[in-house]
Amino acid sequence: MDEDVLAEELRRSLGELVRAVRAVDTMPPGESAILGFLDRRGPLTTADLARLRGVTHQSAAKSVKDLLADGLLHGEPHPHDARKLLLHLTNPGRTRLERERALRAGALGAAIRDTFDAGERQQLSESVALLSRLTERLAGH
């Protein structure tokens, strides 16, 4: 198979898979993305989050405001620039993120069990390692 055709099929299929898994989310995607970035990377500013998400500062600021109001984040003055707020994930924020991740994993796990036989599940497991290597290559790691 031509690698460019394979690449397009993979891009389309993975995009559809991600959208299908996110259908079980109980919070807006922007908010769960912010919680995820803070969980993986530690404290960040709103500008950092906007850049990472590829959205405007205003869009990120709205999500941050909502998350702060819900007690899922807390902010403190940035140590090098007091005009900026350094955002941290709170314990309730981490709990909420873990719940969202568990919902996604549960939905995906149920679909895997319902769709594939044991041999296909083994193939899928082996494919995850290949996809992880591909992701690392694209991310420049």
Which keywords apply here?
mainly alpha; two-stranded antiparallel sheet; 6 helices
In terms of per-residue confidence, which ranges show pLDDT below 50 for 5 or more consecutive residues?
Answer: none
CA gyration radius, whole angstroms? 18 Å
| Main sheet: strand order | 1-2
Q: H/E order of the elements?
A: HHHHEEHH
Sketch the major β-sheet. 2 strands, antiparallel
Count every beta strand, where a strand is a DSSP E run of 2 or more residues. 2
Distance between the termini: 27 Å
Query: How much strand?
Result: 5-15%
Q: What integer is the average pLDDT?
A: 95
Question: Number of helical segments?
Answer: 6
Provide the helix percentage. Answer: over 70%
Query: Which class do the helix and strand fractions yield?
Result: mainly alpha
**Form type:** globular
Explain the overall architecture.
This protein has 141 residues and is mainly alpha-helical. The chain is 72% helix and 7% strand. It has 6 helices and 2 strands, in the order H-H-H-H-E-E-H-H. The chain has helices at 3-22, 29-41, 46-53, 57-69, 91-115, 118-139; strands spanning 73-77, 85-89. It has a two-stranded antiparallel sheet. Strand 1 (73-77) and strand 2 form a beta hairpin. Helix 2 packs across helix 5 (91-115) and helix 3 crosses helix 4. The radius of gyration is 18 Å and the shape is globular. The two termini are 27 Å apart.
